[in-house]
Amino acid sequence: MTQFDNSYVRLPDRFFTRIAPERAPAPEMVLWNADLAAHLGVADWDAEICAGNVIPDGADPIAQVYGGHQFGNWSPQLGDGRAVMLGEVVTDKGRFDIHLKGAGRTPYSRNGDGRAWIGPVLREYIVSEFMHAVGVPTTRALAAVRTGGRVQRERAYPGGLLVRVAASHIRVGTFQYFTAREDYEAVRLLTDHARARHFPQATNTIEFYQEVVRAQARLIATWMGLGFVHGVMNTDNMAVSGETIDFGPCAFIDGYSPKAVYSSIDTHGRYAYEQQPSMAHWNLAQLGSCFVPQLEDELGGQQQAIDALTEVLNSFPGLYQAEWRKVFGAKLGIADAREDDLPLIQDLLGMMAKDGADFTNTFRGLLDGSARDWMLDREIFDDWSARWQARRSPDWQDIAAKATPAVIPRNHRIEEAIQASLAGDDSKAKRLAEVLSHPFDLAEADRDLGLPPREDQMVHMTFCGT
């Protein structure tokens, strides 16, 4: 039995708009996350509920308002333009939002249709569940639904809807929205709400900010360890909970390039793979500026507030580097990666970048001896390997096996699944979702999913789907 307890709607009305999802003509379940459904107490939900045609007892549907910097440009009002939050459910592991993405127009749609098509829905389902399976903090997918309607983009596509589950949908942009309006009471209320919900150990505003900074340092390091490129790290796409959110034009690197960009709208590489740490730092600076007025009261002056926030913000690079070192050290089978291990890690990445070596298979190949095969200059690799063997931990294989999955959501495989689904065949999407739910253990029959793309299969550009 679903237990709703909708705390966000107890905030003032200016935080959201109550609105019901638009009706889907003929909803059909494409992917259903039975394990997550059981945990949330929604195992009896069907396509009608997941599409928003039937509102479950206790739900209180809303669209949340927020602003944000999009590619560095300020947008004073964004908000849930194509999503409706049904409400919050409480489990033994905490409180979770249930969100219908692609549920139709809201007051924040900005002339959009409020809908999604099935391609981006399948992408987010597959990628977010993979991220969960490899231990990356992330929103999750409960269901992918075909709505029975058509969505017009560059052509008409089958409509889709994602049922997304998150620790919350509070974003950096949520704080920015109220700060820009000089609604400091709302910022304070939001801070108290988010602190109680995500970081109850934080006793005040500056400690809350510290926790958000730490969470983002951990999150971005895990992205980097997977070769993950988010693609649209706007401040409205950064959740203060520390979860990955909004998987629009995301992609995973095949042949390693630190400058990898896939998003069709990232024309200047603002959110390239190597830029992600600095972009997270920039986003956190925007969040910190929202806390100045309330910290003036807490700390006794504007300069004291700015100094305290600056100190926390300046801790991000060190926190991130420590997390990055831990992530990549583990991929090399090093249990206690130190500062003096950086050359070993960076030299391997340098070889990989020079040769365009497959990111995932090179690291995975350290386990079975095939990493050398991905290199063009194997003598240089052999020299590196001798250094690595002298440094790795005694139980290095156990450490490395848990740090690099055997299979990732390859861009070309996701595209294949989307194209098959457009033709009425959901089997490829279902297979990907199943295999990627246990990505460290690849069965012989699924070895093809671990292969990099041929030249004619490469996906060089991804799209957000709005």
TrEMBL record:
Keyword list, A-Z: ATP-binding, Magnesium, Manganese, Metal-binding, Nucleotide-binding, Nucleotidyltransferase, Transferase
Residues that hold ATP according to the record: G79, G81, R82, K101, D113, G114, R164, R171, D246
Active site location: D236
InterPro entries documented for this protein: SelO (IPR003846)
EC number: 2.7.7.-, 2.7.7.108
Molecular function per GO: AMPylase activity; ATP binding; magnesium ion binding; manganese ion binding
Protein family: Belongs to the SELO family.
Record-given protein name: Protein nucleotidyltransferase YdiU
Gene source species: Celeribacter ethanolicus
Gene label: ydiU
